[in-house]
Amino acid sequence: MGIRVKILGSNSAAPAHRRHHTAQLLNIEGKYYLMDCGEGTQLQLKRFHIKAQRINHIFISHLHGDHYLGLMGLLSTMHLMGRTKKLDLYGPKGLSEIITMQLKYSETVFNYPINFVEVDTKVSKVIHEDDFVKVISIPLNHRIPCSGYLFQEKKKNRRLIKDLLPPNLSIRNITKLKHGEDIVNEEGKVVFKNEEMTMPPKKSFSYAFCSDTKYDETIVPIIKKVDMLYHEATFLEEHADRAARTFHSTAKEAATIALKAEVGKLLLGHFSIRYKELKPIEDEAKTVFEESYLAIEGEEFVLDF
Fold it and tell me: pTM of the prediction?
């Protein structure tokens, strides 16, 4: 399945022009990862027929309201719907305190445990790893501590050539073939060569989520050659001074980062409410980096063969 990125929200500051606060759902081999959780995220999940209970990992970039104010509502709904499975919640210092305080004063105890993972927003390091993906933090240059997240698919298994497989081949030997091993008999003699019965694995993809940040080339080495980059593009270049003052980026600056990092595709989001029409943002980015696209809500961007 590769990596599928569903855009749930793409606006900054406040909902406007039928656009919602920042939120994205990553689907990697059927596993769901939620990126930021602005106001209205759970309604967007329902709108696009996504089952919230399948989300086991939530990554919050920073503690400005347009990136996490939908979180408590989503967590509460999971509780009310009978969730018992553990949820991993990643974010900067203070996030666990915010959630714990709200639970304390509402005298609520969730049915399920939350594993809070505090992200050091000043360093880039592995913060999550499972059978399918490795997640690395990306220090971003914003007004308050803020982190992006780099998702790297792990190397996939080799693909079996089913027509060449002998009948009654054991599960154990099938697994060996997928892992690149030859099949040997009890004497250690090679019976079936792996290269003759399998094909190379499908490509593993990478996706970088860079939420609020001013133009900062220090992230380039971390996101070098990622297949797809989401980078905020709050303003057009004509408002570059305001972008700098508010620690945000212009579409041109986002595209410049994409160009310098040699990424495959750039997604633009976190649009200012001053822009009702978004085409000028995409057009500006394309003057620097042709593979630039708007992160329109409801659209899904797919990295796969």
Answer: 0.92
